[in-house]
Amino acid sequence: MKIECKNVWKYFGQTTALQDVSLGIADNEFITLVGASGCGKSTLLRTLAGLETHSKGDVLVEGKAITGPGQDRAMVFQHYSLYPWLRVSENIRFCRQLGAQTHNRSSADVEAASGRADALLRLMGLTASAQAYPNQLSGGMQQRVAIARALMGKPQILLMDEPFGALDAQTREVMHDLILHVHRLERTTIVFVTHDVEEAIYLGHRVVLMAPRPGRIDSIYDVPLPARREQDMKLAPEFLRLKRQLLDRIRETSGMKTDLDQLQRLTQVAEERNPV
Ligand SMILES: Nc1ncnc2c1ncn2[C@@H]1O[C@H](COP(=O)(O)OP(=O)(O)OP(=O)(O)O)[C@@H](O)[C@H]1O
Question: What does the H/E/C string look like for the chain?
Answer without folding.
Answer: CCEEEEEEEEEECCEEEEEEEEEEECCCCEEEEEECCCCCHHHHHHHHHCCCCCCEEEEEECCEECCCCCCCEEEECCCCCCCCCCCHHHHHHHHHHHHHHHCCCCHHHHHHHHHHHHHHHHHCCCHHHCCCCHHHCCHHHHHHHHHHHHHCCCCCEEEEECCCCCCCHHHHHHHHHHHHHHHHHHCCEEEEECCCHHHHHHHCCEEEEEECCCCEEEEEEECCCCCCCCHHHHHCHHHHHHHHHHHHHHHHHHCHHHHHHHHHHHHHHHHHHCCC
